[in-house]
Amino acid sequence: MAESGYGMENKDNKKDKDNIKDKDDMKEIDKAKGKDDMKEIDKAKDKDDMKETDKAKDAGNMKEIDKAKEKSNIKHIDKMRDKDNKNNIKNTENSTADNNTTEDRMVLCGANAYEQKYYFNEKFNKIPDSIKEELHVISVLFTQEVGGVFLMVFEPDGTLEFQTEADEEDITYDEISCGLLINKIRRERQEMLESLSLFYRVIVLHEDISQLLDQE
User: Fold this and answer.
1) Which residue of 26, 50, 171, 182 is surrounded by the most CB atoms within 10 Å?
2) Nearest to residue 121, comparing CAs of 158, 94, 142, 103?
3) How far, CA to CA in Å, does 79 sit from each of 13, 15, 25, 66, 85?
4) Which residues, 6+ apart, have CB-to-CB distance to 163 below 8 Å?
């Protein structure tokens, strides 16, 4: 009986050991599964993070691209505006020069009451700035008071003449005030007008300044 009992204990012990092994194996398997699951989760997270990062980068890049496009468009618009403004100025100056000069006459400056613009011939840039400013004031004030178009023109002999004109339908143009104001300018600006005439004869007509001074 003792031997039989001992054999039973061995069987039980063996079962316990097998159970323990099974439990350990299950734990190992669970651990392995847990690790694999964690790896898969980490991979999924990494993929999601990468996607979010890529999305953020794409969004950032698109913003930068949009900003660059906006800046480029603004610069392009500004350039086009500058070109249009320059072309308008040139067209105005060319139109004034073409309409009010001949081969022997040359416009010095002028003002237009209809377009509210002032024109100065760049060929005479050597004239002192103080005189340029005075010519500007005379021309603009004349058109503000009388109306129409006012021009200061060099005749072939170098004489500086005043030329005025107005649209036929312009009922505000005052011919009487025009004549009075021209006489006033000639009287009050006589010295300046003579200096401009002398300048033209020397610089443009290439006359001898010493002879011109002797004549005076």
Assistant:
1) 182
2) 94
3) 97, 94, 79, 20, 10
4) 100, 150, 151, 152, 153
Q: What's the predicted TM-score (pTM) here? A: 0.53
Q: How far apart are CA 16 and CA 32, in angstroms?
A: 24
User: How do the pLDDT tens digits run along the chain, 216 residues long?
Assistant: 344 444 444 555 555 656 566 666 666 656 656 666 667 656 766 676 667 656 756 666 666 656 655 555 445 445 544 544 444 444 444 545 454 455 679 999 999 999 999 999 999 999 999 999 999 999 999 999 999 999 999 999 999 999 999 999 999 999 999 999 999 999 999 999 999 999 999 999 988 877 766 666
Other beta carbons within 10 Å of 45: 10
- Find, among 197, 191, 127, the residue nearest to 156 by Cα: 197
Alpha-helical (H) ranges within the chain are: 2-100, 129-145, 175-188, 190-203, 209-215
The residue written with tokens 């003579």 in the block is 194
How wide is the angle at C-alpha 170 spanned by C-alphas 167 and 171, nearest 5°? 145
| Contact (Cβ atoms closer than 8 angstroms) between residue 143 and residue 151 | no
Closest CA to 201 of 185, 212, 186, 190: 212
Distances (CA, A) of 134 to 50, 108, 128, 180: 72, 13, 10, 19
